User: What shape does this take?
Amino acid sequence: PMHNDYFSHPAYQDYPVVGVSWKQAVAFCNWRTNFKNGYQRSKGKHTVSRFRLPNEGEWEYAARGAREQAIYPWGSPYSRNSKGCFLANFKPLRGNYWADGYIYTGRADSYWKNDFGLYCMSGNVSEWTASTFNPLTDVVVGEINPDYTSNTSIESRNKDGSPASKRKVIKGGSWKDIAAFLEVGARDYEYQDSSRCYIGFR
Assistant: This one.
């Protein structure tokens, strides 16, 4: 852990959740759906659609904030504004983590929001998506529905399943990444049962 009290101290209540595997993030979405719909039913109201992780295409759309071809969520092709302030929490200046104001994670609303009102779509922590990582995704998915997933619940029981199918796309870059990983189109992966101090979910 980055700090012994990160998950319990009130000072960190507005900081992003980290150290959560993809499986745990999906489990939380399922729990949240059941919790919300249980409440809705108890009040005699309509149930809501299930909560889930966004796929890679949905994440990119949300990160761009309706700015077509935007390199970063804030629209500028630069990682600093006109006053020289960094626009995200990442590893600038050849590893000087303090230069952007934080050594590790920062508050979830530390930097400016994009045009959809979403904070820290780039930097702070990388985010899990529902998509399975494939370096050739552009070849195997269509433009209308750019989503590539695998049935991990079956594969996790299948001992002969390919480890590559358990790689999930992470997006947005984090406090430990250089600016290139903060670009909206950048992608990386992590195995679905791994948890890291720089990966969370939205």
Remarks:
- The beta strands are 126-132, 167-171, 188-191, 199-200.
- The chain is about 20% helix and 10% strand.
